[in-house]
């Protein structure tokens, strides 16, 4: 019952890797989706966000205004810390529930936690393998501009707000280089999948 973490910076190709692992049969648990789920209308997390940051964080229909919340906390380390103190415990509990659910359904499952903030929040969890999606910063900036329509300034701001690449690479058991073609990225994932048991055993052996 391998529990694997997959992380990477914005526009690093992490979703491509997760999709390919799913095609091989891995169960993907998406941290971003869990964040959205625990912030649904009438949830304790959303109520706490409203109390902490004000009614302006909610849309008229009672759902979270993500743009307003992002604008409120972006660049404010104290506000980010207060938000994380609300959201992270709920995400941790829900992710643990989903891991257990996946292993109950199939004890031999390979469960992959697709988690952007691994370094910041979950690096000490008992992962059996940590996969890092990597592309140089200039490649990721170009993807944000060309594929996501961001301005150069907005792309630079998003990249600079994240932990440095070195911090992710330092915790990696496996690095998937996504700077090349899609075929090249998928080939690396295929090779990882074929040798997954050996990789996990090697990490356990220290």
Topology, please?
Elements: E1 3-8, H1 14-23, E2 27-30, H2 31-38, H3 44-53, H4 66-73, H5 77-105, E3 111-114, H6 118-122, E4 129-134, H7 137-146, H8 152-160, H9 165-171, E5 174-177, H10 182-194, H11 196-204
Parallel strand pairs: 1-3, 1-4, 2-3, 4-5
Helix pairs in contact: 1-10, 2-5, 3-5, 7-8
How would you concisely characterize the structure shown here?
By secondary structure, the chain is of the alpha/beta class. It has helices at 14-23, 31-38, 44-53, 66-73, 77-105, 118-122, 137-146, 152-160, 165-171, 182-194, 196-204; strands at 3-8, 27-30, 111-114, 129-134, 174-177. It folds into 2 domains: 1-26 and 110-206, P-loop containing nucleotide triphosphate hydrolases (Rossmann fold, 3-Layer(aba) Sandwich), CATH 3.40.50.300; 32-107, P-loop containing nucleotide triphosphate hydrolases (Rossmann fold, 3-Layer(aba) Sandwich).
